[in-house]
């Protein structure tokens, strides 16, 4: 399995929604990017580490990271029900646990534990990275059903029927899988 190491690029609040932010991750060459939706609580935790890392050294996540023995890595291996699937594992993969993608990004920022994505998944999900882009694309297969329904209504309101059709198809696909 080929894999690509990701790096944290930035986090941006979604315009018109105080409780949602988008994390942007790029490949090491900064040519391709994937976006990850995160909630307000994790966004605050991440911003705290980015703005005042020295003030966080005695916080629980940082302390737990210091207690980890051996080397670890995280791997994004799929998408299911609008969520990236991620595993945190030791170097032998004997000990591993599933982890939310947003928590994996936070852990990467705190500890430097590498975050990888399967190459084929990166090819499916990534868009070209533009450093000064005004907006960020979020693949519809990484949105939860609530956000898909909001996006569907927005697309209909704006008479963007092609997007509305794609959103409807994704919602129907998920409803048939459940």
Helix-strand blueprint:
Layout: E1 3-13, E2 20-27, E3 32-39, H1 40-51, H2 60-67, E4 72-80, E5 83-90, E6 96-99, H3 101-111, E7 115-118, H4 119-125, E8 127-128, H5 145-157, H6 161-177
Parallel strand pairs: 4-7
Antiparallel strand pairs: 1-2, 1-7, 2-3, 3-8, 4-5, 5-6
As a percent range, the share of helical residues equals 25-40%
Largest sheet: 8 strands, mixed
H/E order of the elements?
Answer: EEEHHEEEHEHEHH
- Low-pLDDT runs of 5+ residues are none
Question: What general form does the structure show?
Answer: globular
Global structural class? alpha+beta
Number of helices: 6
Termini separation: 29 Å
Return Rg in Å: 17 Å
Mean model confidence by pLDDT: 89
| Main sheet strand line-up | 6-5-4-7-1-2-3-8
Sheet-strand content, in percent, reads: 25-35%
Total beta strands: 8
How do you describe this structure in short?
The protein has 178 residues and is of the alpha+beta class. The chain has helices at 40-51, 60-67, 101-111, 119-125, 145-157, 161-177, and strands at residues 3-13, 20-27, 32-39, 72-80, 83-90, 96-99, 115-118, 127-128. The two termini are 29 Å apart.
